[in-house]
Amino acid sequence: MTDPVLGDLAPEQVRVRFPPSPTGNLHVGNVRSALFNWAFAHHYGGTLVLRIEDTDLARNTPEGYASVIDSLAWLGIDYDEGPGVGGEFGPYKQSERFDIYRDIVTRLHDAGAAYDCYCTNEEVEARRKASGSKVQGYDGHCRHLTDEQRAAYEAEGRTHVVRIKIPDRPIVFDDLVRGEVTFQPEHVPDFAIVRANGDPLYTLVNPVDDALMGITHVLRGEDLLSSTPRQIALYEALEPLGIGTGSPRFGHLPIVMGEGNKRLSKRDAGSGLAEYVERGFLPAGLLNYLALLGWGIAEDRDVFTMTEMAEAFDIRRVNPNPARFDLKKLESINAAHMRLLSIEELEQRLVPFLREADLIEDPPTQAETLKITEGSVLIHERVGTLGEGADMLAFLFLDDVVYDETDVAKVLTEGGLAVVAAAREALAAVADWTTAAIDGALRAKLVDELGLKPRNAFGPVRVAVTGRRISPPLFESLELLGREQSLARLDAAPAAAGAQG
Ligand code: GLU
Ligand code: ZN
């Protein structure tokens, strides 16, 4: 029996591609596509090709290209062929392949599979109205122009696009995610593959390069499903010319939904990769979360590594239903990956964030390094992102605390300040400045003597010392900060509360 995904291919013959248009910040939906292709290629021991779809010269920038390369490097999504890596099917930037496209258009033309169309949009629309047809798109008017008609159009000074002839029968394919999909011919008009100015269109170059690069499987977002029948028609037109071997297998990944019932669009907050890099998400956490947008490793398990994903990945188990992008879930998955880091890894990853916040020197001083190490131990279990970690540790590196206004207003009330004063008195008597001694002194005074609940006892001390209600464990933080600075901060609490009040 042939394999339902591989057909007659050997696993290592699998060739997939990630073809971003370098228009700027990668969309998380694109990253999900890159990840699924990566996992698919690795699962079979096949090849992942990076192809840059930059034929729209007005929209694509060198920065956009650099951002694709940097993003993939940050994510740890490596590719076997592509710009900068090489491979036998290059160049891998479409802007360097215009001669190839021109040649193929000529061959399609000569074979009668493509034709020049001189119609204006207005003419096409007027004919559609007159015929009462509900079908959108081109009606095939120029398919059979005589030489005289052509010459007449040329004499009028008209320009032409090039269109591909779509066969007049349903286009049916077996989607690896959605099963059999059928498009009726009235929904697949003869579409343009070359602009009037001679530039090749996306509709041409995407399938042409799939064919030339020997792509066996196309895994991409469902938003592209409507263009798939046109592409299939083109692969089929190319095959008799000796280009490619017909259509690759398709698998359309579920739509990624944002707020409400709308697709997460490029313009929505939270749709771009850069935001997550800046906030200090881990590549492993982000990728793990994006894998869950359509796939899962097991019912009872949602934290896994990319390697585990590649091993277990099965495109037929991708869920075709829309997947909702859920920031809370992403944060919790990322926090799980933060806990999986060793303390050393956490330290190393925190340094650039502490640096960026101007909290430490570059490179960190010895005293700073010590604080980073001990601080990392304190926050390891309770931090969601590296950015959050740097915020939590900021109080260790600043001479003056930066107070969170809301937290000060809530906690450093009159009652809160009285607690701080009592804590100050108790701590002043602690000679041996260790976590245990600090713990003992504060508990004896605030809980046992004053009868406060631990939350009411330690909350004000925490805000006075760290500036925030969420911090590393309090007694350890006090020890790490040192006696002198701790007492000074407790002394400064009334001023801080006054300044905000
Ligand atoms: N350049 C297209 C995009 O980024 C490629 C789509 C595809 O075929 O995967 O949307
Ligand atoms: Zn026409």
Entry summary:
With 501 residues, the chain is mainly alpha-helical. The chain has helices spanning 28-44, 62-75, 98-110, 121-131, 147-155, 202-212, 228-238, 273-279, 283-291, 306-312, 327-340, 343-356, 366-379, 386-397, 405-411, 414-428, 435-449, 454-466, 474-481, 483-500; strands at 15-18, 47-50, 114-117, 161-164, 171-175, 179-183, 192-194, 217-221, 249-253, 256-257, 323-324.
Write the layout of secondary structure elements.
Elements: E1 15-18, H1 28-44, E2 47-50, H2 62-75, H3 98-110, E3 114-117, H4 121-131, H5 147-155, E4 161-164, E5 171-175, E6 179-183, E7 192-194, H6 202-212, E8 217-221, H7 228-238, E9 249-253, E10 256-257, H8 273-279, H9 283-291, H10 306-312, E11 323-324, H11 327-340, H12 343-356, H13 366-379, H14 386-397, H15 405-411, H16 414-428, H17 435-449, H18 454-466, H19 474-481, H20 483-500
Parallel strand pairs: 1-2, 8-9, 10-11
Antiparallel strand pairs: 3-4, 4-7, 5-6
Helix pairs in contact: 1-10, 6-7, 9-11, 12-13, 12-14, 13-14, 16-17, 16-18, 16-20, 17-19
Bound molecules: glutamic acid and zinc ion (ZN).
Zinc ion binds next to loops.
